[in-house]
Amino acid sequence: MASFEIINLLLIGVIFLLALWELAGIQRARAKGLTKNVSRLLTHSLILVFSIIALIQIFVWEDTLISVSRGALTVPFSAVTICIMFLSATEAYGSLKARINKLTKNASRIITHALIFCLAIVLFFRVIP
Description:
By secondary structure, this protein is mostly helical. The chain has five helices and no strands. It is 84% helix and 0% strand.
């Protein structure tokens, strides 16, 4: 496996772990009765699903990348990273808005979603030829 794919796998892995961490935090908050927000559960679940899809694309299509061209992976993989960027940006915006309106004291949500967004951007531009 080339270093190109290894770096992409690391980026996707970090995105996956950050989304999983946030999802676990939401579940803990729901268990304590601190939140009833379902959209955050849905958003983080979708980020996890898109991360898994991206991992599958890299593992399954690795031979295609080597035998055909790098462009074979670009369109579907780019769509997945764009979805991750959109979801993380909307979550960061919602977290920032809640923080400004003094609805939450949690600043780590903003940082986590901004980091997921930045990692997805890096991943997007690594894949585009």
